Each structure stands twice: as C-alpha cells, then as structure tokens.
C-alpha cells in the first residue's frame, strides 16, 4: 500500500462512499465535487488497489458459481451449470436439471449446430422444460442415417423428448 496524504485518502473515501453507498454516478460525483469524471474513475481504482475500498461478493446466493468455474477450468468447458436442489425427491431434482439443461441448450445453440444427446430421465426433463420454445428446424438421425430432418416448430430438446416418448429416436443425434 502506497502512502497517501490524508487529504487524498479522505477524497478517495468520500468518492467511494458517494459511488458505492449512495449510488451516485461518476458524472454526478464529478459535478458535486467540481473535479473531472476521469479523476473520479482513477481515484475509485486507486481506492480498490490500495485496499481502501474492498468489494465482496456474497456467494451464499449462488454457491455453485465457484464449482461451475472449477469445472470450466479443469475440463476446458465453454460453460458449466451446477443445478443445486434442496429437495430430496428425484422428480424435483430431474425437473431442476431439465430446466437448467434446456436453458443452456437454448442459450448456446446456433443455427446449423449439431448436437448429440444421450438418453435418460435428465435429458427427457430438459425436453419438457425448454425455455425459449423457439421454432427451429430440428430432427434426428437413426442408426442408418436415412431419416430426413423434421420441422415441427418445437424447440430441439422438446422435440427430442417427444421422439423418445414415441420410441422413434434411436441414435440420440439431433441437428438444428
């Protein structure tokens, strides 16, 4: 920590208090104190660097963020989602996994992407919980790869779940 004179420290504390506690913008603070906005920004940064200002994130609200970051880093993932459920009921757990899975698929897929699904109750739950429900061209490939793509107007996970329920899906590969 570099030594600042007491006037500089007092100014940094005042600016930080106005910015972080009173939710004033940097422009408002600059007008009130009669100094440049860029000076406000620089002093806020200096306050953080010198420990005058500390920012704490309360991970109790989403304790899974740390685990998600660890999974992304360890396995080189673009995104990871940990779905924590307080319920001991398997149905509730599957529904939550399905909701998070469907939201992830809806968020990450782009036109032309090809996705391979395994089967199981969690994938079925994702199909039942698709968030966007956007009409997309979707389909599946059977083991013989002769099945044409279908356009149903359903989201990809929902269509796949419907195909699984009807017994039509065999390979678990869908395209968008």
TrEMBL record:
Keywords: DNA-binding, Transcription, Transcription regulation. Pfam families: Sigma70_r4, Sugar-bind. One of its GO terms (biological process) is DNA-templated transcription initiation. Residues 60-127 form the Sugar-binding domain. InterPro entries: ArsR-like_HTH, Homeodomain-like_sf, NagB/RpiA_transferase-like, RNA_pol_sigma70_r4, SorC_transcr_regulators, Sugar-bd_dom_put. Signal peptide: none annotated. One of its GO terms (molecular function) is carbohydrate binding. PANTHER family: TRANSCRIPTIONAL REGULATOR LSRR, TRANSCRIPTIONAL REGULATOR-RELATED. Belongs to the SorC transcriptional regulatory family. This is Transcriptional regulator of sorbose uptake and utilization genes.
